[in-house]
Amino acid sequence: MDASEDVIPHIYYLAAAVALLPLFLKMRSIIRARHESLLRVVSLLLIMAFLVLASAAPQSIALINRTTGVANIAAPWVYSLLTAFSACCLLMLIAWRDGISPAASRAMRSVIVVYSLVIVALWVLFALGDPDVERLRDFDTYYANEPYLREMIMLYIVAHTVADIVNFVLLRSWEHRVRHVDAWLRAGLLLMGAGYITTLGFNGLKLAAVVGRWSGHDLDWLSTQAAPLLGAAGSIVIGAGFLIPHAGQAAHEFWRAGLRHRRLLPLYRLLKQHVPAGPSTLVGKPDIHTSLTIREKEIRDSLYILAPYLDHELHRRARRAVLDPDPVLGEALGRRFAPREAEGVAGAVALVAAIAARAEDPGRGAEWRSPDNLLRDVEAVSRALRRPDTVETVHRNVAARPESTPTAWNDTPAP
Question: Which Pfam families does the protein's record reference (predicted)?
Answer without folding.
Answer: DUF6545
